[in-house]
Every structure is written in C-alpha cells, then in structure tokens.
Design a protein that fits this description.
This protein is α/β, with parallel strands linked by helices. It has 13 helices and 13 strands. The chain has an 8-stranded parallel β-barrel, surrounded by 8 helices.
Length: about 400
C-alpha cells in the first residue's frame, strides 16, 4: 500500500478549540454579557465543557489517538479583566497549557483572539476604536512572556467573521432590524472594519516577531464561493470583501490559516443560501467536503503562492459520526490533490476536538470527542481514532484517494 501524494514529514495533524467555547465561566467577556442580555435568543455557555480545568485530559485523548498538534486559545478577558490590569495567575495557567501540550508531544498552535473580548474593550468601541491597536498590542506584549517555545501563533481568528459580527452589532445598536432567517442572504463584512483589523493584526504580528521566535499568521473563514453565469462581477467584489482583503493582510506572514466547511454559489443578487436538503448539516450548511480544496486553492492564488497554508478548521456539524468520517476523508482527498498541484499546506487541524458551545447554541456537534454537559465525562468518538490512524501513517493511502 502506498500513501497518496506525500505530505511534509513535519505535517501537523490535530484538532482545534477556542477558549470561550470550551473553558466555561468566561465572566468578563463581551460574549458572556451578550448571552445573558439576549432574552433567551442565545443559549448560555455557562460551564461550557469545563475545559479550563480538564484540558490535560483533552490533550491526552488527542495525543493517545495519534495526533501531533492542538490548536487552542488564550482568553483576553481572563488575562486583562480591566484595562491595564493583567492577571499573572491566568498567564501562568495558559503557560501550563502550553507545557502540557509539549509534554504530550502535541505541537501547540496558540490563538490570541477568538471572537470574545473583554467587556471594557467592547464598551470603548472595540475594533473600530482609535485605541484598538494600542489595546490589543498591550495585551499581546504580556502574552508573549508566556509563549516561550511556541512555534505557531495566530493573532486573530477569522477576522472576516469578526468584521461581520461587529458590523451587525453596530447596525442593531443603531436600530436596524437584521432578519437573517432561513433563505435570507448574509451581508458581506464591512471593508472599513476589515481594514482596521488588518492594521491590528500587523501591529500584533510585529510584537510577536520581536518578542518570540514563533511563526505568526491569522486565520480566514473561507467561503469557497463559486460564481454562476451572471454573477461574475458581484463574485469578484464579494470575494474581496469576504477573503481578498484578509489574504492581502497576510502578506509577509509566516503562514495563513484556512478554515473551511461548505461552499456556496454567487448569482447576480449575491451569495445564494443553501437550499433545504436532508444532506444539510446541523448548522443548515450544504454538505460540501470539496470546499476545502476550493478554499486552499483560492487562498494560495490570492497570496501569490508566497504564504504557506495551515488548515486550522475543517469539520461538520452532525450527530452521525460515520458521516463525520466520510466528510473528513473526502476533504482530505481534496487537500492531497491541492498539495499534488503545488499548494504548500503545512497541516490539518480538525474542528473541533470537543462537542462545544457553538456561539449561542449547543445543538451543532462538531467534535471528535463527545462531552456530557452534566458530568463533563469525555467519550472519544470513532472519528478521533480514525483521524489518529490517518495521522500515524502521515496521510491517506493512495487507494483511499480514489474512493
């Protein structure tokens, strides 16, 4: 048996989480406040997966399965609960997470911001505030003290989605009625907010480079958009607003994170919502494992083939784990094909390690590991063992790429 197109010998195989979604009791964050002010529109994160205390077990399960990397985040709202007030205890906590990963031979991929911010930062204007660069880099300086030998650092997770959420929150605050029910077309992220985030990213990346030896980048939520006849002009504009701006912002970075779940078409009116189908996932997205190949090729083209790529999220919301294995296997086939065509891919990190809090909802289950929300007992799914076996043999076998 032969492996498919050979991946790098140092290829990262792992899974991802974010702090607010797994840690629990992130009391000082804007997301915690928003959940409690939503009047029931959002479910509460609460204890989440109690990952703040149980991270050693979670990492051990990944390592024992055969994975060699784990992406996790540092929660800004814990580290700096009030402006300029830094918690040494929290910084030490995240240092222990890094050391635990290293002890288990897991390469830590550390994210410095994953959607949630301190309440005070949001209250003073957040990413659109003139102080945003100063506020974020001040936090990054403190975090660099505990990064130590971390080799992979992500400044901001999915800035395009962050720009979209910021714009929508601002519009609602101004009295707009944003009805995004089934069949409605999602607005594009505002480029003004996106440009502000690019400036923040570049400033933060400079701090990381100055104070550590880590490779630094950020991650983009790839939409894997495809135009249909009549939608080509709008496609170009939407691709810039959704991805091109952020790919340009990655110029000079050590890596770019590709995050991919599904694909949609663009017609003369915009992005076409996924039609209702029994094949749709628990998030309502179309079942499109081929989206990963589209996303990798688009990111590689947008960056002129100058920035190595790392798949930092890819997965499916489903209660059927056999379907998760099928989806991931097909996605990896497209990853192998992209590598065969010359795309420089440095790793694959599945979303998610755990069934977790999906930003206001508990129903969508993306995890390789199930979590009992009452007892917090972890139960590895067959998909974890399957992905671990792929990692142990360093990729798919040639015959698997033909299935």
């Amino acid at each position: 048996m032969n492996r498919a197109t050979a991946l790098r010998p140092d290829f990262l195989w792992g899974a991802s989480t974010s702090p607010h979604q797994v840690e629990g009791n992130n009391l000082n964050s804007d997301w915690w406040r928003m959940e409690h002010q939503s009047q029931g529109h959002l479910e509460l994160s609460g204890d989440a997966c109690d990952g703040y205390h149980r991270y050693p077990q979670d990492m051990r399960l990944l390592a024992e399965a055969g994975l060699n990397a784990y992406r996790f985040g540092i929660e800004w709202a814990r580290v700096e609960p009030e402006p300029g007030e830094f918690s040494r205890a929290e910084l030490n906590h995240y240092r222990r997470m890094i050391e635990t990963a290293r002890d288990l031979s897991l390469e830590p991929v550390v994210t410095l911001h994953h959607f949630s911010s301190p309440r005070w930062f949001t209250d003073e204007g957040g990413w659109t505030s003139p102080q945003a660069v100063d506020r974020f880099t001040r936090y990054v300086v403190q975090v660099c003290d505990v990064l130590g030998d971390v080799s992979w650092v992500c400044t901001i997770n999915e800035p395009n989605i962050l720009a979209l959420m910021t714009g929508m929150a601002n519009a609602v605050a101004d009295g707009a009625d944003l009805n995004l029910g089934a069949g409605r077309r999602m607005p594009a992220p505002g480029t003004e907010i996106g440009e502000a985030l690019v400036n923040v990213h570049r400033a933060a990346a400079a701090v990381v480079r100055e104070r550590t030896s880590a490779k630094v980048g950020w991650t983009v939520a790839q939409q894997a958009l495809v135009p249909v006849p009549g939608g080509e002009d709008l496609y170009d504009r939407l691709r810039w607003a959704w991805e091109g701006l952020y790919h340009q912002g990655a110029e000079g970075d050590d890596w770019l994170g590709v995050q991919s779940y599904t694909s949609q078409t663009v017609d003369e009116k915009g992005i076409v919502p996924a039609p209702e189908s029994p094949d749709n996932t628990l998030t309502g997205w179309a079942y499109r494992p081929d989206a990963l190949g589209i996303a990798l090729r688009q990111a590689w083209a947008d960056t002129g083939g100058r920035v190595p790529l790392l798949v930092t999220e890819n997965g499916i919301a489903t209660a059927d784990d056999a379907r998760r294995i099928a989806y991931t296997g097909e996605a990896l086939r497209h990853l192998h094909a992209a590598v065969a065509d010359g795309v420089d891919v440095r790793g694959y990190l599945h979303w998610s390690a755990l069934d977790n809090f999906e930003w206001g909802h508990w129903a969508p289950t993306f995890g390789l590991i199930a979590v009992d929300r009452r007892t917090f007992v972890r139960t590895p799914k067959p998909s974890l063992a399957w992905l671990g076996s792929v990692a142990r043999r360093r990729g798919l076998l040639e015959e698997e790429t033909r299935q």
